[in-house]
Amino acid sequence: MRQPLLTSTTSYQSLRNHAAQAREWQMRELFAQDPQRFERLSAEAAGLFLDYSKNRLDGRTLELLKQLAAERGVERLRDAMFAGEKINLTENRAVLHTALRAPRTRAFELDGQNITADVHAVLDRIKTFSDSVRSGAWLGHTGKPITDVVNIGIGGSDLGPKMVCLALRQFAHPRLAMHFVSNVDGHDMDAALSRVDPETTLFIIASKTFTTAETMMNANTARAWFLQQAPAQSAEQALAKHFVAVSTNVEAIKTFGIDPANMFPFWDWVGGRYSVWSAIGLPVALSVGFGYFNDLLAGAHAMDEHFRTAPIEQNLPMIMGLVGFWNREFLRCASVSIAPYHQDLNRFPAYLQQLDMESNGKRVTRAGDTITDYDTGPVIWGDVGTNGQHAYFQLLHQGTDVTPIDFIAALRPAHEFHKHHAALLANCFAQSEAFMKGKTADEVRQDLAGQPADEIERLVPHKTFPGNRPSNTILMEYLTPATLGALIALYEHKVFVQGALWDVNSYDQWGVELGKVLAKKIEAELNGEARPAQHDSSTNGLIARAKAAV
Ligand code: F6P
After folding, report:
1. N or C: which end of the chain has fewer CB within 10 A?
2. Ligand 1 atom closest to Cα of residue 215
3. In which family does this protein belong, per the annotation (predicted)?
4. How far apart are CA 316 and CA 65, in angstroms?
5. Residues with Cβ within 6 A of ligand 1?
6. Hey, which residues does 472 pair with through a beta bridge?
7. DSSP-derived secondary structure for 476-515
8. d(CA 215, CA 271)
9. What is the ipTM for the molecules in this complex?
10. Pairing state between β 48-51 and 471-476
11. Contact predicate 414/170, CB 8 Å
């Protein structure tokens, strides 16, 4: 159904008028005027605490955003998603990653079928398999236990399991080293294979479609490498001990030659970037064990329940979605920086890049109309604190663009270097304070008191910080499987809320197709399998240089 244009809605227009004043506000003053601001503009659920008080907004802003959410039918669309309606309109698919983390007792309906039983049948198989690899009962073809797992996948079939395995390294099995090969660049495969022994390595070929060119090439290379040393007469039995697959495309797995007993299926109603909860999470179960994998799912489910039932003003994903929308739409912030103050979350920004940008990087509405008068998904980027502080925070503090930042931290560390943790948290909180407060020219003058007056005035503009730069802070007690699950689900639902407001389909990704098609053509030309086509002069020139180098 065609929605009215976002900018024509009453609440959008009220927000636009309101924003004209809000742009002039100074957060310093908002804090000074309201001693309860932190209490009023913070919320807690599923083990996560969200402080969104350091944003350029007030109670009226939130009221108008809430009205906009009602006018755009965000809660209605949320309920449709949970109910299994086919809200991915261009692929005619349901969006039910939430069903992957629902307890066994919770029936999820799709086309009149209860899919919970299918989900739990696969989870049971993941448990059996991961238990046996972890215990050492599963043996390689020469009778040795597995020591290394190589996950071959890309995009959602790589970023999720890789990010989670790194984040939960405290819980990892000491015998199992995890490796992730995603890039078609042979250096990636070369680096992984140089570190593993074929007799004790398990390969997971992870691909929702089982057609992704990079993954297929890497899978074939890994198989050829493995077969070089496996006894030719029992190659098939050897492969069965070392290759498993995760996909929705069971036929393609069979064609590849993987033992049907070693296939872990999932379903087309799970988007690639929402698939870490499915069998795509197999590396996680292998690394940390099924119990902790289950805790990850339970943490996400707790966030699902919160998102589904909490009123908007207490609803973390709704709040993050609305505040982010406000920053993007009315304060014209083109990017959002993710700053986990936790080394083990160092792949979280990369994970969120796919989650957010592949979901909301769209320029037509759900009905296919070109969006011309408002902006959609922001650029997502970032790195762990404190490293980012010594690299790009300069631009965030004093550059001409305003970039909202999400600070993420655990209150308690999983190590015993307590001084480090106090220093880490101090930096995290100090940065959000500095972004909010800035430093006025008078404060700089006070700092420089004693120096010659003309020297002070020369330095004042350079040492002044405008401040008034928005940030959220998300805190958890410890980084555990459950809090990590809740954190990922929080961002999934934030992306949902913003997609609903912008009226885009957050669940397709047609934008990646054109490059794939052109790469196939050029690959054939580079390999001499096709005559060089007429490209533009730049592409022709680049191809010619590559051919000359062979
Ligand atoms: O090309 C983009 C994409 O389709 C992502 O959406 C997906 O996560 C990734 O490629 C990998 O796809 P697959 O799991 O089917 O190999």
Report:
1. N
2. 16
3. Belongs to the GPI family.
4. 14
5. 154-157, 207-209, 212, 215, 272-273, 358, 509, 512
6. 406
7. ESS--HHHHHHHHHHHHHHHHHHHHHHT--TT--GGGHHH
8. 17
9. 0.98
10. antiparallel
11. yes
